[in-house]
Amino acid sequence: MIPVSYYLVLSGILFSMGVLGVLLRRNALVVFMSIELMLNAANLAFVAFARTFNQLDGQIFVFFVMTVAAAEVAVGLSLIVAIFRSRNTVNVDELSSLKG
Amino acid sequence: MLLSETTTSGLFFNLAPWIVFFPVIGLLLNIIIGGRLTEKGIGAIAAIASGLAFVVSALLAYSLYVTEGHGETVLVAEWIRIGTLALDWAFRVDTLSVTMMLVVSGVGTLIHIYAIGYMHEDVRFKNDVGRYRRFFVFLNLFIAAMMILVSGDNYLMLFVGWEGVGLSSFLLIGFWYDMDTLGRPSWANSNAAKKAFITNRVGDFGFLIAGFLMFWYMGSFQFDAVFAAAPEVAKAHPEIILAMTIFMLIGVAGKSAQIPLFIWLPDAMAGPTPVSALIHAATMVTAGVYLVTRSAPIYDLSYDAQYIVTTVGAATALFAALIAVGQYDIKRVLAYSTISQLGFMVAAVGMGAYVAGMFHLITHAFFKALLFLSAGSVILGLERGHHHMAHGHGGHDAHHDDHAEVFDPGDMRNMGGLRKTMPVTFWLYIIGTLALAGIIPFAGFWSKDEILLDASLHYPHVYWILTAAAFLTAFYMGRQIWMVFFGEARHEAAARAEESPALITVPLMALAALSVLGGALNLPFKGFHQLGHWLEHTLGKMELLGFDLGVAGLSTLFALAAIGVSWFIYGRNPLKVGQVDPLRKPLGFIFAGMERKFYIDEAYKFLILDRYDDLARFTADVIDWKFWHDWFHDTVIAGSFLWISRTFLTEYADQKGIDAFANGIGAFTKDVSTRLRTLQSGFVRSYALFVLVGVVAILGYLLLK
Amino acid sequence: MTPELITFVILALVAIASAAGMILSRNAIYSALYLVLNFLTVAIFYLLLNAPFIALSQVAVYAGAIMVLFLFVIMLLGAEQVPLMLKQRQTIPAVLLALALAGALGVWFAGQAGVTGVIPEPVDTFGDPRAVGVELFFQYQLPFQITAVLLLVAMIGAIILTKREKGG
């Protein structure tokens, strides 16, 4: 049997890699995808814990997370499209009008 | 103080305060309503005030006579009560004070009457009629102050009067403060008045020191208390008694014009003649003699003090007599004569011959007042003559004195032959001269002789000095007579001189009578000695000397010889116009010294006044300006302050310190904010990075907890 | 070395590799495809963890819908050519921090090993769609409905955001 901690460690690694992606990539879409990766990693942890405690709540939660992720992607992508329409770029570095 | 109180007992002691109050009322009346009175009215008020004071003095004398010299102290008001010190304003009525009161008020009243006529002419000569009233106000002030002096019950009251007469003297000497004797603008009289006041002040300083010693060692100023405590102090601290008496002597030297403080009296002749007569001959200057007499119990305790006092008096007598020989101003001769006679008096009381001193004081008051007033009459006569002369020459010339010759009506070289034009004055003057010279049976003979006798018995050196002074006295008075009244007039004004009116000559006749008969006060024969017995009640039993033919004969001989010599030099060949004094060639530089009063004023100026100026200038220029202002204020204080404010506070503290700090904060903030602003890069990812930093931190913290 | 462990390790490596590939890939489309692979791997993990419904939902929703949407947008915007630039200032701190995060998480989770221990065998019907449905509709009815509303809102939002302004 695989100890649950293995899944958790894996989840952590994946999460960190998602963070790296957010921080390092300039393409807005890739950043978004890294966020999805992070969510995914969290989902994995949830499922692992559901299995551990023999409860389905974790899986239910994953279901909701997925739904929300979908909604979020929809809105986010439309945002990116809208920004693209005005700025003609998806390079997040160029979206720096908050520059103080 | 009321008459009603007194008549029941038959004695008038309670009237004592009126000797001061009458003159004060007189002067107040003159101040308040005098503006509306005529000159005669003003003079009348003043003279009556003085006369009433005389009446009260006489009543007090009568009361004393009745009680056989048993005096009383009349309390007017409590003055100082501090701790154990109790000083009151009390009038001490005893034979000594009443004697002085009678002299002051009596001679004073006569002079008041004289002054009515004299000042009438003088204010017209000087062209300031409005000042008439002021003169009589001051004169009454003087009488009041002198009365306080002689009637005081304690030394402090005496000092109040002392200062008061000093003030009156100042006011009266400087009466014509802005013009000289001829009416031209000048500060000479003010300077003379200042000189008198300041020299007096030096004397007052001595008096005060004596007073302080008295209070310290005897605990009181009251006469009886001091005299009672004196013997113990003399036993315990004889040097204190000596110091006290010597300091009092300084006061006497100031007030009674002894060496070294006599310099003010000749200059005081700048005042009107009645002032010279009253204050500087008869009364004020005798205050010093009175002081020593009053302090007899203290002086009797120190032989050294008495020696010093009598020697100073004798030296003054001789010195002043020498100077008098060389003077040309008629009043100045009399001034030095006064100094000389005061020297006689001081010598007398210094020897312990208090009766002789007081006797001479009284007779001197008579004949010196007579002489001064007669000299005033002579001067008035010359002024009248000058007036006639001016009018005779076509009216207005004489009043333009700028190109015309300056006429001094007091200069004896301008006089001569006045015997014919002013006979009454001439005879009055003769009487006064004989009295002063000490020719029997005039008053001066008896009083001076008593002094000489006493000196011959106890202090031989003083006797010979005084005899020499007496010789010179007769000599210079003779000189004066020959120069003024005999020979031919040396100036047209003298030729046209007129006799003075009755208002002037009548008081003089009264004084002349007193000068002749005054000797009767204290004839030195058994059964007489009236004054001596009178004063014994206050001063205690004294040795009353009889008549010594040797001394008397010698002094008369010397006096007659002196007059003879003066006739030989001045009378035989009367002086002509412009002729130099005949004594100049034989005596050479000695005469020059006499003429120039032995340069004593110049010496004082060089030694004291100029050095004082130097000191004052030094303290002002160097200490005050250079040191205090320039260095201390400007350099040290202002400089350091400016340095502190400009350099230190402004540059260092403010600019480099506070400004730098404040600016630094600003700059720092700006710097930090500039740096921090880079964080707001607008890059979302960098924001995300910081979020991650936070997350890791929290995780780490939770892990490690 | 049980077969399960080997399976796990291999799948784990694939997941990590695909994640890395997603991050490091130059082309956005490749990143998307890598991510798809990652999702599939994770779905297999779900299967291993007795969560079949979730696994298939993952494939259907995530890999099927979301990623397709991504690909659409990427191609619509022509965004594939924004490459990775490793020379930026953020790189080193980001890497370090990520490593720190990973380390922290790893340490933490590894420490949980003793707590949880070995997973017992679950019931056969664990993770069953039926069981999940029951759970979902009975216990979590409200969140379910809200999620529905959320989807509606998201849809409306997406439409509004991408609507063109009148007149261009």
Molecular structure report:
The complex is a heterotrimer of chains A (100), B (705) and C (168). With 100 residues, chain A is mainly alpha-helical. Chain A has helices spanning 4-24, 28-53, 57-87. Chain A contains three helices and no strands. The radius of gyration of chain A is 17 Å and the shape is elongated. Chain B is mainly α. Chain B has a two-stranded antiparallel sheet with strand order 1-2. The longest helix of chain B has 78 residues, at 600-677. Residues 400-404 of chain B have low confidence and may be disordered. Chain C is 74% helix and 0% strand. Chain C is built from seven helices and no strands. Classes of the chains: A mainly alpha (100), B mainly alpha (705), C mainly alpha (168). Chains in contact: A-B, A-C, B-C. Chains A and C meet through helix 1, helix 2 and helix 3 of A and helix 1, helix 2, helix 3, helix 4 and helix 6 of C.
Largest sheet: number of strands, sense, barrel closure of chain C: none
Helicity range of the residues of chain B?
over 70%
Strand content of chain B: under 5%
Give average pLDDT of chain B, whole number. 83
**Overall spatial form of chain B:** elongated
Count of β-strands of chain B: 2
Computed structural class of chain C? mainly alpha
The secondary-structure element order of chain B is HHHEEHHHHHHHHHHHHHHHHHHHHHHHHH
Largest sheet of chain B: 2 strands, antiparallel
Number of helices of chain C: 7
How would you classify the quaternary structure?
heterotrimer
Main interface: chain pair and counts: A-C, 70 and 88 residues
- Report the C-alpha radius of gyration of chain C, rounded: 20 Å
Order of helices and strands of chain C: HHHHHHH
Kindly provide the radius of gyration of chain B, computed on alpha-carbon positions and rounded to a whole number of angstroms. Answer: 37 Å
Nearest-integer average pLDDT of chain C: 84
Distance between the termini of chain C: 64 Å
Give the beta-strand count of chain C: 0
* Helix residue percentage of chain C: over 70%
User: Which regions of chain B contain 5 or more consecutive residues with pLDDT less than 50?
Assistant: 400-404
Structural class of chain B: mainly alpha
